[in-house]
Structures are given as structure tokens and as C-alpha cells.
């Protein structure tokens, strides 16, 4: 099977500082790739390349066999550790924005049946992430775990081909983190997602991932630490299904739009 995402001899350099060198990576559709490595190894830089926020200084990044567009498109969704939701919008508004903005780029608002359809779609996605009863709340009224559920819904509503997670659960308490592991596993299965996740938590990397990639420097120059960059030092295939047992799916609200209409 051909790879959904390919990195071919990718380098990231800032002036004389080499952050990543000779990174070669093929990620097949449906994979859950965890990326680990010491602080400063270039894990977030790698995600920014896949997101299209940055271009490699050498090499190529291909999505579906095509060179990546130089900006983030709807084919890539991303969830950061925090602050990725709009604080001035309700939960439903946050997710609808992802549908309204591309469909009506000037007003960022749909009307009539198109709006009702978008509302139904956004409400269904919020049910899937366990926020079906919170459509009218604002982010400030929600816990960190709920905000991350919202960030995931916001990323998934555009049906990305690949979901990028940058330390998505790093700021959460252990219990909430375990719930989120169940949720992301459930969504990965239900939506047939391809996921690339950066984490500092090695247990999390091995529990969730079907494959773990470790970035680190192979060569060091003690007199010029910036001279060599990190690369993939280990690439461990684990299994085809993650070890986490997903929780029972949330019960859908029989009439999700009634809460949203108020
Ligand atoms: N715009 C930039 N200009 C110069 N150096 C940069 C820039 N962006 C990142 N770097 C450097 O690239 C290196 C890798 O940073 P990056 O954030 O990708 O590492 P990381 O592995 O994600 O680290 P952490 O685990 O601490 O989040 C760091 O040394 C950082 O200082």
C-alpha cells in the first residue's frame, strides 16, 4: 500500500543550526504514529512541516503522493496542548466555524438549510467527543479535558486526511488523560483516522501508537552543538490496534438541535 504521508531526506535548518537532518518517513493510511525524543530534538518542528506551517530547507514532504501545499489545508487537522479553541465562541460555534468559514469565507456564517445542516453535523461531532450536553457552554466554563475534547471536534469536523496531535494531553490530570486516551482510540477507529502524535510521555506513545518513532541526534560535535540535527533513530512497528480499550460511545441526544437553537 502506498504511503499517505512521505518525508524524503527532509532537513530543517535555521541559519547554521541544523534541527532535523535526513529524515525519511513513510506513514500509511490508518496508522497511529507516536513521535518521542528529548526536548529540542525537533518533534514540533516535524509536525509544523507536516502541517505546512514551515517548509523543509532540503527534501520533500508528500501527502497522498503530492507535494504538500505550503499552508495548512483542510486535509490536515491539528490539536495543540492548549489554547486552540476560540474563547469568544460557544462550543457549537467553535465547531461550526470550521464548516462555515470555508463555505462562506467573507461572512463566516451560513443561513437557512445550509446552517441547519452544518449545525446538525457539528452537534453530531460534539456528541462523538462526549460534549453533547455542552453545546452552549463557552470554553472558560469548561475543564481542561473538555476544552481538549472541543479542540479534537474542531479538528475533526473538517474531515482531515491526517490528524496531528502536539502533546494534546500534556496539560491534563492523569485520570482525565486516561479518559482522553480512550476517546482518541475510539475516534481513531470509528473515523478511520491517520494520526501523528508528539508526546513526552513514553508510556502514552506505546499505549496509543501502532508505531513509535524516536528522534535524536546520531552525531554530536561538542564544540558546535548546532552542527548536527536529529533524525529517526528508532522506528518501532507495534501492532495494528492500540492497547487502550475505548470507552462505550456517548449516547446521542435524540434532539441535539433543540439545545443549540436557544
Ligand atoms: N524559528 C526558529 N528559529 C530558530 N530556532 C528554532 C526555531 N524554531 C525552533 N527552533 C529550534 O529548533 C529546535 C527544535 O525545536 P522543537 O520545538 O521542534 O523541539 P521539540 O523536540 O518539539 O522540543 P520540546 O520537546 O521541548 O517541545 C530547538 O533548539 C529550537 O530552539
TrEMBL record:
Domain ABC transporter stretches: 5-242
Keywords tagged on the record: Acyltransferase, ATP-binding, Nucleotide-binding, Transferase, Transport
Alphabetized Gene3D superfamilies for the sequence: P-loop containing nucleotide triphosphate hydrolases
Biased composition (Pro residues): 244-255
Keyword Cytoplasm: no
Keyword ATP-binding annotated: yes
Superkingdom of the source species: Bacteria
Region listing for Disordered, in residue ranges: 243-262
GO molecular function, one term: acyltransferase activity
This protein's name: Lauroyl acyltransferase
Organism encoding this protein: Novosphingobium fuchskuhlense
Amino acid at each position: 500500500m502506498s504511503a499517505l504521508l512521505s518525508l524524503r531526506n527532509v532537513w530543517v535548518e535555521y541559519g547554521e543550526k541544523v534541527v532535523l537532518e535526513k529524515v525519511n518517513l513513510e506513514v500509511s493510511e490508518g496508522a497511529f504514529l507516536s513521535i518521542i525524543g528529548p526536548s529540542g530534538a525537533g518533534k514540533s518542528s516535524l509536525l509544523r512541516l507536516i502541517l505546512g506551517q514551515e517548509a523543509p530547507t532540503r527534501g520533500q514532504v508528500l501527502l497522498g503522493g503530492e507535494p504538500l501545499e505550503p499552508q495548512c489545508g483542510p486535509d490536515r487537522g491539528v490539536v495543540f496542548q492548549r489554547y486552540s479553541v476560540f474563547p469568544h465562541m460557544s462550543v457549537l460555534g467553535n465547531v461550526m466555524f470550521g464548516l462555515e468559514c470555508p463555505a462562506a469565507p467573507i461572512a463566516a456564517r451560513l443561513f437557512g438549510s445550509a446552517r441547519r445542516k452544518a449545525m446538525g453535523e457539528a452537534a453530531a461531532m460534539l456528541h462523538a467527543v462526549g460534549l453533547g450536553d455542552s453545546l452552549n457552554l463557552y470554553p472558560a466554563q469548561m475543564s481542561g479535558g473538555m476544552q481538549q475534547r472541543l479542540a479534537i471536534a474542531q479538528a475533526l469536523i473538517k474531515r482531515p486526511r491526517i490528524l496531528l496531535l502536539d502533546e494534546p494531553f500534556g496539560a491534563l490530570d492523569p485520570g482525565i488523560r486516561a479518559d482522553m486516551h480512550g476517546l482518541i482510540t475510539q475516534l481513531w477507529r470509528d473515523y478511520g483516522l491517520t494520526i501523528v502524535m508528539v508526546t513526552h510521555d513514553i508510556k502514552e506513545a506505546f499505549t496509543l501508537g501502532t508505531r513509535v518513532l524516536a528522534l535524536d541526534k546520531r552525531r554530536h560535535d561538542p564544540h558546535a552543538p548546532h552542527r548536527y540535527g536529529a533524525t529517526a533513530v528508532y522506528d518501532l512497528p507495534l501492532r495494528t490496534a492500540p492497547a487502550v480499550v475505548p470507552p462505550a460511545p456517548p449516547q446521542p441526544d435524540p434532539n441535539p438541535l433543540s439545545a443549540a437553537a436557544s
